Amino acid sequence: MPDKRRDVISWDEFFMRVAIAASLRSKDPITQVGACIADTNHRILSVGYNGTPSAINDDDFPWGSSDDPLRDKHSYVVHAEANAVLNYRGSLKDMQGATVYVTLFPCHECAKLLVQAGVGEVVYLDDKYEGTLDNQISRRCLDTCGVTYRRVAVPA
Ligand SMILES: Nc1ccn([C@H]2C[C@H](O)[C@@H](COP(=O)(O)O)O2)c(=O)n1
Ligand SMILES: [Zn+2]
User: Fold this and answer.
1) Is residue 121 annotated as part of the catalytic site, yes or no?
2) Residue 85: CB within 6 Å of ligand 1?
3) List of residues 6+ apart from 112 with CB closer than 8 A
4) Which SUPFAM superfamilies match (predicted)?
5) Residue 156's pLDDT band (boundaries 50, 70, 90)?
């Protein structure tokens, strides 16, 4: 009888790979972000990626940055973490203490949303806005609300 496989990927790697897969759906030409929310029993609750609201035809909206907010993608894109929370069809009670795996450290708006949804931990891959004011606000919000965060690497 063969022994069982033992070199399986970790839960962290598994959920982050799901988040990475979600990011591949993003139409943003510069920054594709994916998020995967897993509960304390290692069950996936939801996934999301950054994109325009589903009722919007994303061919009709800008995908670049601009000083004019009307022509700036940031005005129209829903962030990956927000979509992951909004895509969940169950009770928000299930999200208490859940872990969000996200390919980019949450912005301060998403940090507020995740805290309010009851998420207990953020696991992230990249932090390209580290040190910015937005990033500092985000960390302060998570710290104050007892949401822990840690960075992981995923093998290529
Ligand atoms: N945690 C985050 C941060 C950003 N996003 C989205 C929003 C935009 O589509 C893009 C960031 O824009 P850029 O850095 O290219 O100016 O990523 C997100 O979904 N989650
Ligand atoms: Zn955000």
Assistant:
1) no
2) no
3) 141
4) Cytidine deaminase-like
5) confident
